[in-house]
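Please fill in the sequence for the structure shown.

STRUCTURE ENCODING:
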C-alpha cells in the first residue's frame, strides 16, 4: 500500500513512479479531489514525462466518474494550466515533477482562478480521502458520470500573454532558449516564435522526460553552462533557461553571465509600476534588498513575505499586489490570476531590452546593487537549536536587528544581512547572505558558516 504521507507535500504531490505512486493512486486522488473540494469542472494537463500519460488519464477518469466535467488539455506548461484555470474559472491538476529527475512525477493542484491548494487548505483532506479509497472505501461516483473531453489551449495562452506585453515593437533580438527538454520546447515556439522580431535559437526543444542533456533545473549553475556557451558562440543578445514544467525562467546576458532573479524582479516591478503607479509589489525575504529600494524609488509599496508560492500568492491577494518575485525565479502577476509564469516575466525582460540599444548587462546593472552569496546548505541535526544559538549571538551585536518571519534574518548595522532557514524535508540549514561588497559578503558568510558548522 503506498504511503501517501511520503508523496503529499506542503504544496503539491510528488514522488517516484511506480515506487511511491502509480495510476491506482492517481485515480484515488482524482476521486478524492472532487469529493473534498466539490469542484465540478476540472482541467487536467501534463508535462512531457512518459508516466504522465497514464497518471493523468487515471485521475481524469476517476474525477469524471465522481461527477466532474473534465477537460484534458494534454501537454502543457504549468503556467498554461494556470491560464486555463483562471480564464475559464476551473479547478486544475497539472501532472509534473518540475525539475526533479525522470523517475519522479507529481501533481500541482489548484482551485478555480488558479488559487493554490496546500496542506492547510484542502490537500491534507484530499490525501486522507484518497487513503481511505485505497484501503477499500468505495470511491464517490455520480448518478450521471461525466466524460473527459480533449481541448488544446496553447494558442489562447499565447494570445493572452501577447495581450499583456507588447513585444512586437521591440528591436530585433537574437534569443537563445534552453528548454532543457522540458515544456518550454512546446510553449516557446507558440509564444516567442510567433509575431515577434526575435530570432529564437533553440536548445533542447525536443520533449523528453528522461532529460538526456542536463537536468531541467536552471537554479543549479551546472545546468546553465550549455546556454552560456551558446549565447557567447552565437553573439546572442540574451539567453533564457526554463525548468521542466516551464513555470520558472532564468536569464543570462550577452556575455553569458547570469542575471539574478532579484534583478529580474526589480526590472519587472519597475515596468508594472509604470503601468500601475503606486501599486503594491511583493518580494520574499531572500530577494535582494535592492528590490524594495527600487520599488520605493518608483513610487510603489514593497511588502516582504516568507519564501514559498502559497505565501506570495496569499499576500498578493490580500494587498491586491500587481506583481511578486522570488529569488528562485518564480514571478507572479495580478494579470495572471496571481499565479506564477516564467514566460510572462521573460516577455517583460525582452520588451525592456527591445526598447533600448543597451546590451542586457548594462540594462540590468542598476538593479544589482549588492553582492549575494547564493543559497548555501549545511547538514545540521539540531536545526532549531543551531538557529537559536546564532540568534543569541547576534542579539548581542550592537545595532543588529533580528526577525523570525521565516527562519532567522539578521540585519547588521552596516545594512548587510543574512537569512538562515531550515529545510522542510531534510536536516539542512539554508544560508543566504547579502552585502555591499564581495569582501564583506565573504566575511559575513564565513562568520555565520563557522557558527553553523562548529
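FILLED IN BY: designer on duty
SEQUENCE:
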Amino acid at each position: 500500500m503506498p504511503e501517501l504521507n511520503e508523496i503529499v507535500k506542503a504544496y503539491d504531490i510528488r514522488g517516484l513512479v511506480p515506487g511511491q505512486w502509480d495510476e491506482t493512486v492517481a485515480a484515488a486522488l482524482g476521486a478524492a479531489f472532487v469529493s473534498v473540494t466539490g469542484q465540478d469542472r476540472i482541467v487536467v494537463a501534463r508535462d512531457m514525462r512518459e508516466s504522465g500519460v497514464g497518471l493523468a488519464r487515471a485521475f481524469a477518469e476517476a474525477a469524471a466518474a465522481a461527477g466532474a466535467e473534465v477537460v484534458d488539455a494534454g501537454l502543457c506548461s504549468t503556467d498554461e494550466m494556470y491560464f486555463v484555470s483562471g480564464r475559464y474559472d476551473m479547478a486544475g491538476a497539472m501532472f509534473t515533477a518540475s525539475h526533479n529527475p525522470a523517475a519522479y512525477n507529481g501533481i500541482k493542484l489548484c482551485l478555480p482562478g488558479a488559487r493554490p491548494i496546500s496542506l492547510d487548505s484542502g490537500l491534507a483532506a484530499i490525501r486522507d480521502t484518497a487513503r481511505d479509497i485505497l484501503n477499500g472505501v468505495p470511491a464517490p461516483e455520480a448518478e450521471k458520470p461525466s466524460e473527459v473531453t480533449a481541448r488544446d489551449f496553447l494558442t489562447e495562452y499565447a494570445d493572452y500573454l501577447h495581450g499583456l506585453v507588447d513585444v512586437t515593437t521591440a528591436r530585433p533580438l537574437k534569443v537563445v532558449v534552453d528548454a532543457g527538454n522540458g515544456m518550454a520546447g512546446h510553449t516557446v515556439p507558440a509564444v516567442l516564435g510567433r509575431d515577434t522580431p526575435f530570432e529564437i535559437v533553440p536548445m533542447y526543444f525536443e520533449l523528453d522526460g528522461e532529460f538526456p542533456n542536463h537536468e531541467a533545473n536552471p537554479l543549479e549553475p551546472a545546468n546553465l553552462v550549455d546556454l552560456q556557451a551558446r549565447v557567447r558562440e552565437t553573439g546572442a543578445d540574451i539567453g533564457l533557461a526554463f525548468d521542466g514544467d516551464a513555470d520558472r525562467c532564468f536569464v543570462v546576458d550577452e556575455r553569458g553571465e547570469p542575471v539574478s532573479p532579484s534583478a529580474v524582479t526589480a526590472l519587472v516591478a519597475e515596468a508594472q509600476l509604470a503601468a500601475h503607479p503606486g501599486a503594491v509589489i511583493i518580494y520574499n525575504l531572500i530577494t535582494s534588498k535592492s528590490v524594495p529600494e527600487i520599488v520605493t524609488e518608483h513610487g510603489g509599496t514593497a511588502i516582504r513575505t516568507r519564501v514559498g508560492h502559497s505565501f506570495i500568492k496569499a499576500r498578493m491577494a490580500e494587498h491586491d499586489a500587481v506583481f511578486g518575485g522570488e529569488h528562485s525565479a518564480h514571478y507572479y502577476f495580478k494579470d495572471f490570476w496571481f499565479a506564477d509564469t516564467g514566460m510572462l516575466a521573460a516577455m517583460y525582460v525582452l520588451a525592456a531590452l527591445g526598447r533600448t540599444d543597451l546590451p542586457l548587462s548594462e540594462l540590468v546593472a542598476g538593479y544589482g546593487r549588492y553582492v549575494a552569496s547564493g543559497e548555501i546548505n549545511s547538514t545540521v541535526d539540531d536545526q532549531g537549536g543551531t538557529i537559536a544559538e546564532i540568534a543569541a549571538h547576534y542579539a548581542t551585536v550592537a545595532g543588529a536587528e533580528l526577525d523570525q518571519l521565516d527562519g532567522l534574518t539578521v540585519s547588521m548595522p552596516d545594512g548587510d544581512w543574512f537569512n538562515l532557514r531550515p529545510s522542510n524535508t531534510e536536516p539542512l540549514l539554508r544560508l543566504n547572505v547579502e552585502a555591499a561588497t564581495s569582501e564583506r559578503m565573504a566575511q559575513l558568510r564565513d562568520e555565520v558558516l563557522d557558527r553553523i558548522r562548529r
